[in-house]
Amino acid sequence: QVQLVESGGGLVQPGGSLRLSCAASGSIFSINAMGWYRQAPGKQRELVAAITSGGSTNYADSVKGRFTISRDNAKNTVYLQVNSLKPEDTAVYYCNADIPKYSGSYYYPTYDYWGQGTQVTVSS
Fold this sequence. Notes:
Elements: E1 2-7, E2 10-12, E3 18-26, E4 34-39, E5 46-51, E6 57-59, E7 67-72, E8 77-82, E9 91-98, E10 101-103, E11 106-108, E12 112-114, E13 118-122
Parallel strand pairs: 2-13
Antiparallel strand pairs: 1-3, 3-8, 4-5, 4-9, 5-6, 7-8, 9-12, 9-13, 10-11
């Protein structure tokens, strides 16, 4: 079993900053890409940022220059530094990790896991 546990969300004023963390635990041999998604009320879940096992990153246009994704492979943890927050950044932020999975005699080289989500609210 693999679990992703997020932390670091909260209420912040416009222009403020937060650091989100997501730690993966359980039967983990390696982790492929990791990423952060968000879902605002009434909207679809969208990719915010992603990082490969080699450290390559990509970002949604709406967060480029404000958000930074990073990972610590030794700790199986991905981070999202969010700066210059805007009210439109308000959403539940979800961690995602692509982790190979063994199930009985089957091996899945890619398998998606999700965290439970952490609320980020930007308001004055």
